[in-house]
Amino acid sequence: MTVISSHKDTEALTLTIVAEYDAAPERVWRVWEDPRKLERWWGPPTWPATFEQHDFKAGGRSSYFMTGPDGTKSNGWWEITAIEAPRRLEFDDGFADDKGERNTEMPVIHCAVTLEANGSGTRMTTVNSFESLEQLEKLIEMGMEEGMKLAEGQIDALLAED
């Protein structure tokens, strides 16, 4: 099983997803670094992502949209705040309008990803931090926890191709 746990902490205002992969951290890092690989797993299988921009460096910005089964598009953006290849990535993740501009009515999530060697594989821990309990509850209600688990579950197939 790829995703081994998820935990919502209402005091720390975090949602943590832990997954394990049968590949070295350097290979797992590539699924974050390469936009063509990233768009094959970022988002649940029924909401595939398309990355229009992916400036993968500290201070860089990414823009993407996910397409639902009925053709509905949901736009998003990242601002990368820290990178230590191939072990740590941090970024702010937010919603955008149809023109790719920030949707200030929706929460911004700070995402911290850690890749650790685990035997011959990698343990990936993704900690999503929220500014308030209301934001955390809103995104959980929108299906974020299940969506992230489904998304990260697609990484094994990508690693099997390399």
UniProtKB/TrEMBL annotation:
Annotated transmembrane regions: none
UniProt-listed InterPro entries: ASHA1/2-like_C (IPR013538), START-like_dom_sf (IPR023393)
Domain Activator of Hsp90 ATPase homologue 1/2-like C-terminal: 22-159
CDD domains: SRPBCC_CalC_Aha1-like
Homology family: Belongs to the AHA1 family.
Descriptive protein name: Activator of HSP90 ATPase 1 family protein
